[in-house]
Amino acid sequence: MELELYGVDDKFYSKLDQEDALLGSYPVDDGCRIHVRTLPGTLPRPTIHLAIQQALAGLCPQS
Q: For residue 19, what is the DSSP state?
């Protein structure tokens, strides 16, 4: 699985490919999106999706 960061204008910013990096170490701004690309022959693991959701929830707390 590969994670890619795109800006509000759908411009590619970078791959999120450093296992030990925090999400805040990438140029994430309001309106950015993370694209999850599943590699051929693999299925996404639910634990990875949960980790992504938890990381995003920390960036965008619910009011």
A: T
Per-residue pLDDT reduced to its tens digit, 5-32: 898 888 999 898 888 888 888 888 888 8
Cβ neighbors of 31 (< 8 A, separation 6 or more) are 7, 8
> Whole-prediction pTM value?
0.59
DSSP 22-62: -GGGS---TT-EEEEEPPTT----HHHHHHHHHHHHHHS--
- Could you give the CA distance from residue 25 to residue 41 in angstroms, rounded to a whole number? 30
Side-chain half-sphere CA neighbours of 30 within 13 A: 1
Residue 45 pLDDT exceeds 80: no
CA 29 – CA 54 distance, rounded (Å):
17
Bridge partners, residue 33, by sequence: 6
